[in-house]
Design a protein that fits this description.
By secondary structure, the protein is α/β, with parallel strands linked by helices. The chain is 18% helix and 26% strand. It folds into 2 domains: 7-52, no CATH class; 54-171, Ribonuclease Z/Hydroxyacylglutathione hydrolase-like (Metallo-beta-lactamase, Chain A), CATH 3.60.15.10.
Length: 171
């Protein structure tokens, strides 16, 4: 008897097309590794399928463009992750992030070089502190950030666990 050594598990969340069907949702797949998951081709109906798997999704509009959103994913055990792309300081992101286990937050420019619609390390830290997040992960760094101590800037407003994201980082 062969032992199943498969490390990656795939759940087909939808096997249909954009044409409405009572039998099939739009194409999408959830790929789960030992320590990470990725959602592929998330078409209409995908969020409903995630709910069936026990992953709750909440979202809020953030201050960048009218279509810009931040997401909160919570599993059955109550562990949650909030992800925000481009945004400026906004109360809705604080509310969505309240007491989350991990907040992955953009910090595009260093303090003193702020651009409208984006955060700096100190502002991202302020959001995390106000929301009382358990861990803050800063990401979305423009190259100018390489010339500054981003972690020290964030420490002006946030004292909790802090990670500066790097490509292929596993949390």
């Amino acid at each position: 008897m062969m032992q199943n050594t498969q490390r990656i598990k795939v759940t087909i969340l939808g096997s249909g097309t954009c044409v409405p069907s009572l039998k099939r949702n739009s194409c999408s797949a959830l790929v789960r590794g030992k320590s990470s998951h990725i959602l592929l081709d998330a078409g209409p109906g995908t969020m409903g399928q995630l709910l069936k798997l026990g992953i709750q999704l909440d979202y809020t509009k953030v201050y960048h463009k009218p279509e810009s959103l931040a997401y909160r994913l919570t599993d059955k055990a109550g562990f949650s992750v909030v992800y925000s792309g481009d945004t400026d300081f906004c109360e809705p992101l604080i509310d969505l992030s309240r007491k989350t286990d991990i907040l992955i937050c953009e910090s595009a420019f260093p303090d003193g070089k702020k651009v409208s619609g984006h955060l700096t390390p100190s502002i991202a830290g302020e959001i995390a502190a106000k929301a009382r997040v358990r861990k803050l992960v800063l990401t979305h760094f423009y190259p100018v950030c390489d010339d500054f101590d981003i972690k020290a800037q964030c420490r002006n407003t946030f004292t909790g666990p802090l990670v500066l994201a790097e490509d292929l980082l596993n949390l």
